[in-house]
Amino acid sequence: MLKKTISTIFLFSLFGCTTLPELTNPMAGSENANRITTSFDSENEILGIGSSKIGSSGTLIANGKASKEAKDKLKNKILEEEDIIFKSFLVSADPYIKKILSPALPDLMDYTATQLIQKSVEKDSWVENNKSYAAYTLSKTEILAESQNIFTQYIDDITSKLQIIKEGVVQ
Predict the structure, then answer these.
(1) Is the dihedral of CA 24, 27, 31, 36 positive or negative?
(2) What are the beta bridge partners of residue 131?
(3) Which domains does the chain have, with CATH numbers?
(4) For strand 131-139 and strand 45-53, is the pairing parallel, antiparallel, or unpaired?
(5) Within 10 A of 149 (CB to CB), how many other CB atoms are there?
(6) Cα–Cα distance between 89 and 28 in angstroms, integer?
(7) What is the largest CA-CA distance in the chain?
(8) Main-chain dihedrals φ then ψ at residue 136, nearest 5 degrees
(9) What is the pLDDT along the chain (171 residues), one digit of tens a residue?
């Protein structure tokens, strides 16, 4: 009985695994994608590539969907970079200041990423195998500069509001 059960499980797993559809990378085999990934500087830039199948609406709509997907992917990568940057701003802060500033970090990061997406550059767009592709890049230097700018503005805003409270107490 045990042998039959084991052999049945083995056969199900053998045939079950071989009949699964093969998952393919949507960018695999694309000469243009290879050209894009080799033409951007991964040390100094981040890249977002999006794709969309060209449907009955045509290439214009597919291009728009591919651009949106590329920008969404780029925004996620920006948020990953910003997480490191914003947390580094708080390294020297004491626990009290961290407690005050930490709840605002996700909103600051999202706001900064939204601003940065507008500064992203379309590296390339192309149509291949009935799909439209778009690639957007952004400089890591730009991410750092904008993050510093937004964080500094936020600190200045908090400082001015605390100053108003202080002046009200002193009077």
Answers:
(1) negative
(2) 53, 128
(3) 30-166 (3.10.129)
(4) antiparallel
(5) 12
(6) 39
(7) 90
(8) -120, 145
(9) 666 666 556 555 656 555 555 444 545 545 665 666 667 788 999 999 999 999 998 999 999 999 999 999 999 999 999 999 999 999 999 999 999 999 999 999 999 999 999 999 999 999 999 999 999 999 999 999 999 999 999 999 999 999 999 998 887
The residue type at 13: S
The span from the CA of 155 to the CA of 69, in Å, is 33
Residues in the chain: 171
- In contact, 83 and 109? CB cutoff 8 Å: yes
Task: Take residue 151 and report the two structure tokens written for it.
Answer: 């964080």
* Global confidence as pTM: 0.75
Supply 11's token pair: 């056969």
Residue type, 32: N
- Decide if 104 contacts 97 (C-beta within 8 A): no
Which residue in the block uniquely carries the two structure tokens 């969404």?
72
